[in-house]
Design goal:
Helices cover 18% and strands 40% of the residues. It has two domains: 2-32; 40-138, Immunoglobulin-like, CATH 2.60.40. Strands 1, 2, 5, 9 and 10 form a five-stranded mixed sheet that branches. The chain is globular. It has one helix and ten strands, in the order αββββββββββ.
């Protein structure tokens, strides 16, 4: 019985050693491979005022040859900034902006109600291969009269 416990303990130790070795091998330098990532920050306005809350999504424009990573940043009081080292690689990006307004009310689960301010705003932009600033005004199409 004691031998069985020792064998199980030895097997478990060997398995843990193997798993930690693989983690080190697979994780080393993976973030350094590929193009550099640059920080982007800016101000987003809607109807001439800073966007209260929202998010901005940067998706590489593959049709323009950009194969870089996508990135998301959160907007608060009109300001956003991508995380350092997790930004854009430069080149053409499709950009989506969503804006929200926090209500003073809560739902049945006690969660704060967040209302969209507009439909998702979509645009494109060519970013340099360096840290940069990109400000934009969300434009909502005017309704057509019938």
């Amino acid at each position: 019985m004691i031998q069985l416990l020792h064998r199980k303990a030895a097997s478990l130790a060997a398995l843990l050693l193997l798993a930690s070795s693989l983690t080190v091998i697979c994780g080393c330098g993976a973030g350094d491979i590929g193009p550099g990532k640059y920080q982007v920050s800016g101000v987003i306005t809607f109807q001439g005022q800073p966007l209260p809350e929202g998010e901005i999504i940067f998706a590489p424009d593959a049709s323009a040859g950009n194969q870089g990573p996508a990135c998301i940043a959160y907007v608060k009081d009109g300001k956003y900034s991508t995380q350092y080292g997790k930004g854009l690689v430069g080149g053409a990006y499709k950009i989506e902006v969503e804006g929200f307004e926090t209500k003073a009310e809560v739902d049945v689960d006690g969660e704060t109600i967040v209302a969209p301010l507009f439909r998702t705003f979509v645009t494109t932009h060519e970013f340099p291969q360096e840290d940069s600033t990109y400000d934009l005004e969300v434009e909502v199409p005017k309704k057509k009269r019938r």
